[in-house]
Amino acid sequence: MSTLPKIAWIGLGIMGSPMSENLIKAGYQVTGFTLEQDKLDRLAAAGGTVAGSIAEAVKDADVVITMVPASPQVEAISYGPDGILENARSGALLIDMSSITPQTSVDLAKAAKDKGIRVLDAPVSGGEAGAIEAVLSIMVGGEQADFDAAKPILEALGKTIVLCGPHGSGQTVKAANQLIVAVNIQACAEAVVFLEKSGVDLQAALDVLNGGLAGSTVLTRKKDNFLNRDFKPGFRIDLHHKDMGIVTDAARNVGAALPVGAVVAQLVASLRAQGDGGLDHSALLRAVERLSGAQV
């Protein structure tokens, strides 16, 4: 029998499915639950165990990992008679890898402590490709001892794994990450439209730009999306809209001005309002094209 901790995984979406599969490849016993049957079938095919409910998934787990879209979903799976806190055993470690508000993470840690359950907020950056390749950046909030216990598990999911401070700190750093990513994508999108309207070879231009100071992980990851107008979702506009709301609200609470971030948040919101919420966030290019007179 394996001496590795038994893991329950709740939420098997674009990120959750490949992440859970990487844990299985690393030798962990993973029991999963999500609402979509095809995602459960995928987990079973990868060697995981399928549960019929949250309660069934978490009852024997040493570690519970959650990866769901937003704060309301984290609260829905965590609280109540059928939720994680009522059904996980005392002493279990709950690692929430969703991107939610810092306050939601603080509140969850407080409620879990009353049940004898330890909590880390551990949101990630790197998108679907980073999840598949197990090279995610993982920003963690919580206690040092819990971080140390979780680190071997997190090392099967990512490359850069950092304890950023107490509960909620991981979510605060993730909010800053989403601010930087959105502004970067917007700048790249504007450059793409400028280059194309100027008649420049876009492939050549992006290659040389990415080799200099203008280069970035965003441009590396999203260059083909721009070139091919391929906006199959790796990270949906809907989710980035949620995250921009988190960062602008959190910044207001601490008195930080985000003038450029506020503009990009509105551009993300407008793209969503035009029906593009299900597209990859590189689809910010479509908003710039519309503003520049293109029929998109």
Verbal overview:
This protein has 296 residues and is α/β, with parallel strands linked by helices. The protein is built from 14 helices and 9 strands. The strands form 2 sheets. It has a 6-stranded parallel β-sheet, sandwiched between helices. Strands 7-8-9 form a 3-stranded mixed β-sheet. Helix 6 links the parallel strand 5 and strand 6. Helix 10 runs antiparallel to helix 11. The longest helix is centred in the middle third of the chain and has 29 residues. It starts with 6 loop residues before the first strand and ends in a 5-residue tail after the last helix.
Summary, kept brief:
Helix content is 54%, strand content 13%. The protein has 296 residues and is of the alpha/beta class.
List keywords for this structure.
alpha/beta; three-stranded mixed beta sheet; 14 helices; 13% strand; 6PGDH_NADP-bd; oxidoreductase
Give the SSE string.
EHEHEHEHHEHEEHEHEHHHHHH
Could you name the ranges where pLDDT drops below 50 across 5 or more consecutive residues?
none
Using DSSP, what is the number of strands?
Answer: 9
Describe the strand arrangement of the main beta sheet, using strand numbers: 3-2-1-4-5-6
Strand count, sense and barrel status of the largest sheet are: 6 strands, parallel
Number of helices: 14
Question: How much of the residues is beta strand, in percent?
Answer: 5-15%
Q: Oligomerization state of this entry? A: single chain
Mean pLDDT: 97
Instruction: Give the overall shape, derived from the CA principal axes.
Output: globular
Q: Find the structural class using helix and strand composition.
A: alpha/beta
Cα Rg: 20 Å
Q: What separation lies between the terminal Cα atoms?
A: 57 Å
Helix content: 40-55%
